[in-house]
Amino acid sequence: MGGDNFKIPSYTLKHNGETVDFAIRSVEEVINIFGAQTDRPHRHDYYTVLWSLNDSGKHIIDYKDYEMHANDIFL
Q1: Domain range spanning residue 18?
Q2: H/E element holding 8?
Q3: How many secondary structure helices (H) and strands (E) does the chain include?
Q4: What confidence score (pLDDT) does residue 75 get?
Q5: Domain tally for the chain?
Q6: Is the separation of the CB atoms in 69 and 56 below 8 Å?
Q7: Predicted TM-score (pTM) of this structure
């Protein structure tokens, strides 16, 4: 990455084009909204609660990997 040339995008929480304070979305909805951008470094100006109901996977926060399993909650 080119140092000065790399900007990490920042996202605002929106629903129907309006900025909102709170939203509940499935992982599928998030992927539909943001696409592959969820796999790239990004920031957002809202808090996120992740609840993995059945699936497992990995969530990366500040370049650290966190394994997720069924019924895990990340705050």
Answers
A1: 6-74
A2: none
A3: 1, 8
A4: 82
A5: 1
A6: yes
A7: 0.61
